[in-house]
Here is the input.
Amino acid sequence: MTKWWKRQRRRWLMRHADVHIISFPKCGRTWLCLMIAKALEFHYDVAVDNPLKLRRYRRRIPGLPLILQHHDGGPEFRRVEELEQDKGLYAGKRVLFLVRDPRDVTVSAYFQKTKRNINFQGSLKDYVYHPVGSIATNIAFYNIWARNRHLPETFLLMTYEGLHADAGRELRRAMELIGVTDITDNTLQRAVDACRFDQMRRLEAANALGSKRLAPRDAADESTYKTREGQVGGHAKYLDPEEIAYMDRLIDQELDPLYAQYRSDAGAARSY
Here is the structure.
């Protein structure tokens, strides 16, 4: 009954959410959502028991839209041909779509699946070529959304690399999508500072939020942290030239040009 109820509630939330924050896993969504949470807290002087569930702020802030963050159907567990193509559910909604360099996503996902969730057996090289949830799935997921970006009332593309380059600027774009347009630059900067890598690592190490989303599997093993490195371009130190060349070919040949922005953002990015 508990599982049934959770499924029903999730379906209700998916249908009724006004704002959807969507990403392929390991694109930095937790970081972005915590910054949004802190911006709401500082701007409205409110708090909730689990800030990583943005929908809970609606109870405390009159007029705030219902915000739901999710991965749009668990693409990390699907082959390319199994991905949902129909995005009609989002017609008339506001969608923030967060993307990241697929090469960095793949490396980060490998650590997630072998150190945190333990649902992949094999080497990083094995995972690069794996048909379920690896870079091929990631690129296909991005492309599906590129083809369907006309369906939402508003489609805001944001990159992990852009967040690194100027988190305050990107956070303002997110807040404006939500409808919070009168927030000050100082408040945004406070939220950014509260969510820097070292701050998030301390929160995770202490499990300060009381949430599995931001807690290490093993506090003594840095590879089991969700806030593992917080870098742009980190894939280069884990992958051999052969794997990088394969991934580069996939990106060049298959990734929709809509996402070229992550490359230019990466040039201006720095570790947060």
Summary: The mean pLDDT is 89. The longest strand covers residues 94-99.
